[in-house]
Specification:
mainly beta, Neuraminidase, Immunoglobulin-like, five-stranded antiparallel sheet, 1% helix
């Protein structure tokens, strides 16, 4: 099948760099953080409403306690939505934002009434800020992870505090009522990082320590039901030479995928897969330093064929990398080496996939040494775009309308339809298990449907309108 190259022609962007050995990659720096507009984003990633990208920075802003901001995908329209200030609204966020369709929700590691963090919400226009919860020690604190929303509750993990002082799993309603301490971490997994993901009837998460391995242990993968029952340790990571995950799991097909910052053949971290029942563990990529990166501090995303991620260190200048690798561990490609002042350094976070570009942030580097926002275009052939594992389209081809049927319920997902030249022709944000596509003003021809879930995992399928 003939490949069609998809190329964006956004001429106003700051600069473009082309990197050999990647097929074709286009790097564009969208923003240099300068302090006033934020600084040092940490463990964050972008949430998209189809028009803006939303995220947090750990530092910077008026009080140097962090910000919430939005920016358009072409780098224009930057707007600071919130300056964190300490007791009143928290400080030092280490998390991505999620949405319930009206509010954006996030967490901070410090600030609030007891200076150990808050859960907050704010509208996309910057109004309506409210603290959902002040952590007080008993109900958790020092959170360094994002939230999961199921339509009723927000679910999260507290890094420390709780009755056992090792962190806890909790849920709370978006209006601040209904808080439940679901599980107190002790003995096995301790100090949970990242966010829950929902697979089947369980929520899955990872802890940074506890169990076998050096120091305080290498952490666990654990599962628990949304009602707080059924807690179980899926695997102790130290028993399989993986150690200290600082991100969340990603579900692709029958496996869960994740990264650890240490362990692996070179003790520089690895990419692994495991089945939800704890069987089938395999390390599919060992980080080695200058050749392919090291010490990932974030999560993977997937398009169904490839996993995409960043490493905080390693690469040619030990300033981090962006990479992709197939879910079976083959096909590794380093998409970019971060170099410091030019394109940023030390990315502590997770990529966002818009369908045509990968978006991310670095915690340092750039013009001011305070981090950058970038996008990276990885152009693939049409046959690579047909990698659906999450949904079916019926009928296909169609003349008036079709139905997308999902294998699992979608929470605040994004559907993007593009033509064969990569131009977006329709964007819909939705939840549920079914979604209708209407022909409306679309011309007859071939289009591509990309669905991006709340964890930034993407699946694609070709449609034909006739």
């Amino acid at each position: 099948m003939k490949k069609i190259t998809l190329i964006s022609s956004a001429c106003m962007l700051a600069f473009n760099l082309f990197f050999p050995g990647t097929g074709f990659s286009q790097y564009t720096k969208l923003l240099d953080f300068n302090g006033a507009n934020g600084a040092r984003p940490d463990k964050s990633s972008f949430y998209s409403d189809g028009t803006f990208l939303y995220a947090t920075t750990q530092f910077g802003g008026t009080n140097d306690m962090g910000t919430v901001f939005k920016i358009k995908p072409d780098g224009s329209g930057y707007m600071k939505l919130l300056d964190f200030s300490g007791q009143a609204n928290g400080k030092w966020p280490h998390s991505a934002l999620i949405s319930d369709g009206t509010y954006l929700y996030g967490t901070t590691s410090d600030g609030g009434n007891t200076d150990i963090g808050v859960i907050f919400k704010i509208k996309p226009d910057g109004t309506g800020f409210a603290k959902v919860l002040d952590f007080n020690g008993t109900n958790g604190g020092l959170t360094e992870g994002s939230l999961l929303y199921d339509g009723t509750y927000l679910y999260g993990m507290s890094l420390t505090f709780g009755p056992q002082s090792n962190g806890l799993f909790y849920k709370i309603k978006p209006d601040g009522t209904g808080y439940v301490d679901m599980y107190d971490c002790f003995n096995s997994g301790t100090n949970p990082y990242g966010a829950f993901i929902s697979v089947g009837t369980y929520l899955y998460g990872m802890t940074q320590s506890g169990g076998a391995g050096g120091g305080g242990g290498c952490g666990y993968i654990s599962k628990i039901k949304p009602d707080g029952t059924g807690y179980a340790d899926v695997i102790a990571l130290g028993t399989v030479n993986a150690c200290s995950p600082y991100g969340s799991l990603t579900s692709v097909g029958p496996f869960l995928y994740g990264m650890t910052a240490f362990g692996g053949t070179n003790n520089l971290g690895n990419v692994f897969k495991i089945k939800p029942d704890g069987t089938g563990y395999a390390s599919i990529l060992d980080f080695a330093g200058s050749t392919n990166g090291s010490t990932p501090i974030g999560s993977l995303i997937s398009d169904g064929t490839y996993l995409y991620g960043m490493t905080a260190r390693g690469g040619s200048l030990d300033s981090g990398t962006v990479f992709k690798v197939k879910t079976d561990g083959t096909g590794y490609i380093k998409l970019i080496d971060f170099t410091g002042p030019v394109n940023g350094s030390y990315p502590y976070g997770t990529l966002y996939n818009s369908g045509s570009y990968l978006y991310g942030m670095t915690s340092m580097g750039g013009t001011n040494g305070l981090g950058t926002i970038f996008k990276l275009g990885t152009v693939a052939g049409i046959e690579e775009m047909e990698n659906n594992t999450a949904f079916g389209i019926y009928p296909n081809p169609f003349s008036t309308s079709a139905t997308i049927e999902f294998k699992q319920i979608q929470h605040q997902s994004l559907m993007i339809i593009t033509d064969v030249l990569g131009k977006e022709v329709k964007t819909i944000r939705f939840s549920g298990t079914h979604l209708n596509i209407e022909k409306e003003e679309l011309k007859n021809g071939i289009y591509f449907v990309r669905v991006i879930d709340q964890h930034n995992n993407a699946s694609n399928q070709k449609i034909i309108i006739q």
